[in-house]
Design goal:
By secondary structure, the chain is α+β, with helices and mostly antiparallel strands. It contains 2 helices and 4 strands; from the N terminus they run E-H-E-H-E-E.
């Protein structure tokens, strides 16, 4: 989103061009701000090595709106399953107002 200490690159996840380069992708509390989370998850899937894992947290239905940057989505466990449908070994758990997803490519 912005430059700062420890920031290597700034890029919209929709524009990622990595192919099977990462063992782990961590996506914490960002998909609600993404205008196309399906594209982001598609790019993340492409970027993961075979056997790589993705860890995601998203706000559930009752999570308060927080508008910076824009706040587009709230998720259900079923919605996260749809987002991660191409992954295997999918584990989804709801804790309070957050939904946690763990999946393997």
């Amino acid at each position: 989103m912005r430059d700062g200490k420890g920031v290597d690159i700034i890029i919209n996840a929709h524009d990622l061009k990595y192919k099977e380069e990462f063992d782990v992708i961590i996506c914490l509390d960002t998909l609600e701000h993404d205008d196309n989370p399906f594209q982001t998850i598609k790019k993340a899937y492409q970027a993961l090595k075979i056997g790589g894992i993705i860890l995601i947290t998203v706000p559930g239905i009752n999570f308060q709106k927080h508008g910076y940057p824009s706040d587009y989505w709230r998720f259900t466990e079923e919605g996260l399953k749809v987002l991660l449908k191409n992954f295997k070994k999918l584990k989804i758990k709801k804790i309070h107002k957050e939904i946690y997803g763990f999946a393997e490519k």
